[in-house]
Amino acid sequence: MIRTIQIVNNQYIPKFFIRYMLIYLADLCYFHDWDNIQPLPLNIGYVAAYLKNKHPEVSIELFKDPIKLKNRISEKSPDVLAISHYEWNSNLNLAILKHMKQKNADTVTVMGGPNFNAVDLDWLQNFFQERPNLDAYIYGEGEWSFTRFVELLQGNDKKLSNIPFEELPGSVFFFDKRLNKIINNPRNFVERLNLTDHPSPYLTGILDSFLADPHLAPIIETNRGCPYACTFCNWGNATQEKINQFSLETVKEEVKYICENSRNLTGFLYVADANFGILRRDLEIAKTMRDCTDKYNFPQHAYIYFAKNTNEVIINIAATLKTVTSMSMSKQTMNQETLVNIKRKNIPIEQYDVLREKCHEKGIETYCELIYGLAGESYQSFVNGVKQTARNDIRIAMYAHSILYGTEASTKQYREKFGIKTAYRVIPRYISSNNDLLTLEYEEVVIETNDFSREDFFRVRFFQFLFYIFTSEIFLELSHALSINGSDYVTLIEHILDDKENWTPKLEKLFNDFSQSARDELIANKKVEFAREDIKKARIHNKQLNPFYMSKIVTDTELISDFKSYMLGSINRFFGSEITHTGLNELKQTVKFAFDKMVNYEKLDSGKTVLYDYDISSWLDSQEKLPLENFHVPKSVEYIFKLDDYILSALEKVGNYTDDLTSVIYRLRTNEMGPTGDKIFCYKRYGRKMQSGTQTALSNEEIESRKISKREANRRHVEIAQRST
């Protein structure tokens, strides 16, 4: 039997090799045709690198693709199957665990990750009872705990029940079916890892095969820990408050290695830090990333969670990376009472405005996240926060408060204190597209609190749909004109919400159908096992409602006409008492711009030309926010509207799946295009001046395409943040 010497501060020296041990590590996800930004499995890469460093003799195989793992299990059973556990792969894991136990009941199955409530015994018992094929769960940092767990298994005939209780790390939980109780030894507290000498899963080559996969995006972690205790987030819970740093030299070498070796089709890089920019050295890391972009053309896009309290150091970092990323200016809410309830503190609004202006001066695209359904937030306070943020010209990622296990908000006490009630809904992105694995995932969303009624939830849901429409590229000019005239798109949305008696019949049907769908998508209880018919129905009926109903608009000629007429007829009614006659005409002109840009798939033109008497591009680019009339031109400008060729080719491909045009466009938007898919609703537009039979460039296609691409990149960050619903 293999034993180890005494453990001191998580350090130990094994006396014997771990012989004849085969371990499968998996970080599973749902793959789709369009999805080229799934993060590669860095988490299990760290576990593998650490375990291999301690025990080079152990055999480890890593998996991201659930079908590959399922097939490998069928070929050869491992001694241990360990899987990362998150909201987005929970049921997928269950299907794999079931397959594993059917093939070999003796394989020890383990899960790990932050999506776990380690303090509620009732929750823990229910968790394990729902997962009869799960043997153990490891909570917190996984490297040391999993290595120790494997050693204990090896030293006790590979049987969990043989491990002496006093030797169990405090991070290990399992359910003893015979005793009907949770087994955990909290006295064996597991210290945080010293990351300075942590072996790199990149530099050791462990992740090479995943870097070579064009559909997987690399992800890098430069530090661990979060000093904040936000009640809705479990980031800090997994690693506690103190920030531990990986070696700076290792991080820089990893960045270079990734950028030289990644074959990701989109040039995408994730930074896994909770607060990038919180350390002064992060500027040096950012410069290394920028140098790699210059040298390797990678990353082309980076998704980064910047430090919560924005300051000039962070702005300098964002400026260094402004060609590849947008900067998140963290908020979550503008309501002071809610900030107290969620244990957050925003920077003073005056400081926020100064920093925002500095970002704009440096050409940094910014966005922030606002969450509805937080404790203490009412419908009106949330909308007021959206309006205040919109008037600061910051793009908003808006989404519902989703309950994550392991967060304070998920506890019984917190729910009872703030009257939190929830429901489940299927996450459309996480429905299996492969009939060999019949699974899907749910999210648990807050639909009611002491200050936020269920009807408020549905009203915000409808507000969010209109927000999706009017913050799209289609209505860019209208939003700009509203700002110039002292208003904003949130005020417009509020007017439309309160204007039901003037909705046209087709608009009323669209809006009512959306609202009903928002109600229908909620369910009281979730399932953990699924029949083929369940998945078939889910694929048909569970949609991302915002893009689905936008797809309904652009596939109905009469609805487009109705919508345009309604908007033109509503401007005076909505804004007549607060905007000048010239300003009202300007708003109407931008409404016409919008509907010229909107693609009509029922009468599709791959390209068209329209004459305008305005230099629209110069108007949008002007820093002075001058009226549109100031950009009137003496001779009409010919504007060219085009759809990208690849959109047309993708449309032809998707058209083979169904004859329903709305379903075709929705599939094109969500399954083919992914987070940059809104471009399918809107023509690219660029102009040239007509002069005496000759054409002089006003704003050429390349310049306009670059501007649009920059806005698309910002929208991509927003959509990834909010998982568009």
Explain what you see:
This protein has 725 residues and is an alpha/beta fold. Among the domains are: 22-183, Cobalamin-binding domain (Rossmann fold, 3-Layer(aba) Sandwich), CATH 3.40.50; 195-463, tm_1862 like domain (pyruvate-formate lyase- activating enzyme), CATH 3.80.30. Helices cover 42% and strands 17% of the residues. The relative contact order is 0.07. The chain is built from 26 helices and 23 strands. The protein is globular. Strands 3-1-4-5-6-7-8 form a 7-stranded mixed sheet, sandwiched between helices. A 4-stranded antiparallel sheet has the order 20-21-22-23. Strands 10-13-14 form a 3-stranded parallel sheet. Residues 1-9, 11-16 and 690-699 have low confidence and may be disordered. Helix 2 (66-75) packs parallel to helix 3. The protein starts with 21 loop residues before the first strand and ends with a helix.
Question: What is the subunit arrangement here?
Answer: single chain
Q: Sheet with the most strands?
A: 7 strands, mixed
Radius of gyration: 27 Å
Contiguous low-pLDDT stretches (5 residues minimum) are 1-9, 11-16, 690-699
How is the CATH topology of one domain named?
pyruvate-formate lyase- activating enzyme
CATH architectural name of one domain:
Alpha-Beta Horseshoe
**Share of β-strand residues:** 15-25%
Overall SS class: alpha/beta
What is the percent of helical residues?
40-55%
